[in-house]
Amino acid sequence: MTPASTSPPTERVIFVEGVTDKHVVRHICIRNEIPLSFDIEETGGVQHLLGRMENEIKVSDREVVAFVLDANGDIVNQWDRVHDCLKEAGVTPPEGLASEGIIIAAKPGKPRVGVWLMPDNASPGELEDFVQKMIPERDPVWPFSKKYIADTKAHRKFKPQKTSRAELYAWLATRETPGKIGPAIRTRDLDTSGDLCFRFSEWIRELFG
Length: 209
Known about the structure:
5 strands, alpha/beta, globular
């Protein structure tokens, strides 16, 4: 059963899967000087987020609502699920994804709706694949992080599709606040000026500007 929201409905809100996603969105906005004129609410996972999508779009007096979720292993299937949720909510979705994210204009009785499928609206993957793109190109630790994960192949317990996540957290283990993405953005160890992060930031600006 999908858990009920523990906070009152807001007029402008982004729903994300978990607390890490929430911190990433918040810190990117702060770094890129995007006014936090909206709430960011975690839902407890992708299934809960999808389960809430229809009702959250239908909340009375809502102006803007957006959903940030992982594509996971199959972006086509994930987009099909989102597409169906949007239609059930009375919103007309585009037929396909766009690299700059989805923004559906408001219409009478319906808010402006945004969708971003991590990492880039085109590839299978998750938040950590997005964050990997924020590691500076010549970062001295990154090659060692990747090698460490590669060298433990015979002993690892995670699935192959989680390799990118393992590499990222090996790198994060060397930061000022080990293992935390948000503080790595705040301290500028992660770069928010690259192409993918720029597109994500512009999607948020257009949604809530």
